[in-house]
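The aim of this short unit is practical: by the end, you should be able to scan a pair of folded records and say something sensible about each. We start with the first protein, listed as its amino acid sequence and then its structure tokens.
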Amino acid sequence: MKRGILFISIVFAGTFAACSRNEAKVSGRLVGRDSVKLYLEQISPGRQVLIDSTITDDKGSYAFRVKLPQGQATIYNLRTNDEIVPLLLSAGEHVKIQ
């Protein structure tokens, strides 16, 4: 019985790791700024592509989960209407910006 549970746990962990290999997370909190619209843009030569957007909650918190192209490090901008934060995201990273 214990071997069966161990096997299932290993399979689940392996599946989860394989799914998150090409992903990165960006989260944080904008202190004193609730309901702010944030944009995540992918930067490539000659263009910026809007990937996702969100609105901060009542505490100023936000989160993005990004699927990276081919598991490569990629440049992104985290943008509000008046600020831009450049990011270099790699697979498996969790970047926290406050």
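Turning to the second protein, read its sequence before its tokens, just as you did above.
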Amino acid sequence: MAEKSIAEILNSVCAIRKEPAHIRESLVQEIAQTLNDQRSVPFFRIVVLKFNGHEDVIFKCLGLTKETAELSVVKKSRGAIFTHLIKKEAQKLNIHL
């Protein structure tokens, strides 16, 4: 049996939860665009899938990422900052990324 891609899994979960896959994918693309990080799209898909019902946390982390990047005190990329923040929030919510 062939392994499913992340997109196929996302579509399956969205169908079960009665959520259109295009809504989830638009959030993934919004994250990638905000962070200017297209190569991390597979990770962002996992984040969106696992943070279902906690989208406010995703937006909080995006906002904090923008603020931190604008301060220019951190030499990390926006993607790295977001990943650090979202993993901390995942631990608080007992979400395994």
